[in-house]
Amino acid sequence: MKRREFLNIGVQHINFSQQESLKTTDSEEGAKSGIAMIDTGSCSAWTGGDCRMCYIKCPLLDKAIVIEDFKPVVIGENCNGCGICENICSMINGKAFIKVFLKGINT
Ligand code: SF4
Ligand code: SF4
Question: InterPro entries under this entry (predicted)?
């Protein structure tokens, strides 16, 4: 799947309040079964801000998250679902605008 196709799926289907997000990020099984998705309607970078912390903190920098047009974009096939991006976003914003979802649930 191409980057844009994956991103578009995320934009079309993501509604954090209705999805089952992985709350535990230290589970090996969970980490392998999740993919991070960005709520592009709320993320600072996608709405004109300059935050890039999920990108900076991702252990798979430039593999699982890349920067395109100054915005973070998750590369689904490379994301391992570790949840670090979700945690840092939540710490900064008081709410995560990038979350890890179980594979197979709108992914
Ligand atoms: S950390 Fe959150 S607000 Fe910042 S760029 Fe990533 S998703 Fe957007
Ligand atoms: S879940 Fe982990 S590997 Fe995937 S984008 Fe977030 S920090 Fe990177």
Answer: 4Fe4S_Fe-S-bd
